[in-house]
């Protein structure tokens, strides 16, 4: 199997199939990343992310992995989506605002366990970049350096951010649940419940990918075809 850089080089050389394979490889992870934050607008932001990669592919010099680069683009498109939606001319306050603040409507994610539901609701109430940091850590197994690249912050600050995010997560869960047993169960195996929630979201992404392929006569749901 070709690695990401081999596929990227082939795509840059005009091989559109290589571009489709590259995006398809990361589709479920990026879809999961977006779905937990924009709900019904996931497909729109996903398409904008892929098109942004098409437009900027030649500026990517390989200083990080392609996956890290792709998540960085997805994060920027995510923030741009909410700026457009809220008609903001300046940057979002990612240090204090949460995705729940930006869109308090009920999530479309169907959790399999009460612990997953509690964790999901609490994640959406974390400040934006703290939520992203935790998800990249738990769901993508990213290193501190990779998380820092996506968030555009010094790598030395990642561990302290993750620690603060976990502390805030507990405080939020305490405020939104009346069940001490459920709270302790969730926090007692935070790593396990976080990974299970991630798998639930990934399953939803897989279904979305198959639906998209069926709707497009089995063509890959990527922006690679736009790279002419």
UniProtKB/TrEMBL annotation:
Protein name (database record): RNA polymerase sigma-70 factor, ECF subfamily
Lineage top rank: taxon: Bacteria
Domain RNA polymerase sigma-70 region: 22-87
Originating species: Nannocystis exedens
Domain RNA polymerase sigma factor 70 region 4 type: 118-169
Molecular function, one GO term: DNA binding
Span list, region Disordered: 204-228
Keyword DNA-binding: yes
Keyword Transcription regulation among UniProt keywords: yes
UniProt keyword list: DNA-binding, Sigma factor, Transcription, Transcription regulation
GO BP terms, alphabetized: DNA-templated transcription initiation
Family indicated by similarity: Belongs to the sigma-70 factor family. ECF subfamily.
